[in-house]
Known about the structure:
By secondary structure, this protein is an alpha+beta fold. Strands 3-4-5-2-1-8-9 form a 7-stranded mixed sheet. It has 23 helices and 13 strands. The protein starts with 15 loop residues before the first helix and ends with a helix.
Amino acid sequence: MxxxxxxxxxxxxxxxxxxxxxxxxxxxSPVLVELGERFAAAGFEAHLVGGxxxxxxxxxxxxxxxxxxxxxxxxxxxxxxxxxxxxxxxGSTWNQGIAFGTVGAEVRGTRLExxxxxxxxxxxxxxxxxxxxxxxxxxxxxxxxxxxxAMAVSLGPDRTVTDPFGGLGDLLARxxxxxxxxxxxxxxxxxxxxxxxxxxxxxxxxxDEDVLAALxxxxxxxxxxxxxxxxxxLSKTLLQDAPREALELFVGSGLADVVLPELxxxxxxxxxxxxxxxxxxxxxxxxxxxIALEQADPDAPSPDLxxxxxxxxxxxxxxxxxxxxxxGRVSFHHHEVVGAKLVRRRLTALRYxxxxxxxxARLTFLHLRFHGYGRGEWTDSAVRRYVTDAGxxxxxxxxxxxxxxxxxxxxxxxxxxxxxxxxxxxxxELSAAEDLARVRPDLDGNAIMEIxxxxxxxxxxxxxxxxxxxxxxxxxxxxxxxxxxxRAWWATRG
Length: 494
């Protein structure tokens, strides 16, 4: 069961100007105004709470309306009373969370989650609370994860802003605290530790000493959390504009050791050019550069989870392939092959969608291909294979390879960039002459069977692959030449 909450100094009153700004932002939403009126008329309280208030306070003075997304409301009405109040007004309602006191609703395009005041207790073995109704708004705010999420604004006529734990001050100071003792909060729900990491990236907050100490001491508790929830928080962190500082907290606190051990394992691996403190630092730099290239490309998806995962994890095969060479050199031969396997295994364990797993593993496998061609002696065949192997991932592969060049030697960096410029130019030129996006044999399966006078079977597939290889090596052939090559290959088979 949860222990006693740590005492906190009395919160500083919310300045009148800020209160008025938040009221104005609430009033921008007719749905919230109507909701407040309906509940007040029935004798119930209703308060906008949590991230919605936090984001409204961040938007205060900017002229920005309430952010898009679900709006969280808390009330003293019980779930069945909430459903009754919504009947005839909400376009739709859903009650998947009703066991935890939450009723979902959609009103003219606005999604609401309305939860009865709670004062939950936790069994400390899972993250599932023993749901207990709270007697007041104060009870409800005290159970929340961080002070910046423990603020509320009344939807009643007074529009009172309630901030019992100093969340506004923390928000202004960019400080991350818990309403009570951090150890108690994280023991109740270890997922809050990953949320702390995310808020570093999302809100630019810095954990206070209590939070930081608890993260480090309790990182092992994260093993209680399901992979799906870990994956969701990790992805949300990676999709922020600047996740590096959050990832450093993720690794430095020991949380990554529990759910993504391949990342902290990179800290001991010095890269072969001795240009970086370690491969871990290099990987974070690659991520920074990949995000910059992604954001600068108007034709690319942004934020791009696949590219960011690949940038962060592309070198995870290095620890297992590290070899000491003469003259103090270090090599990591075939780390892209080992890395692709590790990426596939870890992302699968974290329950990422199969398509994401395969795309990140493929980028990891291909990220060194460019460096296998020396100073850029790219034959037409090599260009075709590069494009064909990358497939739809080619734009991401371009960004990953360019980001992977983090050398501080300006001359070398310029040479690598120029070489890759040359490769992209070759791809463009060859694509103009050939359809590189759809490299296929010059004869299809029906033509193969007719020419060789065979029926469907293994031999057709073998012939198709021979012609595909020929197409990659020599480019498009006219049908007569393709047929001659096919017959010659068939003859060698006896």
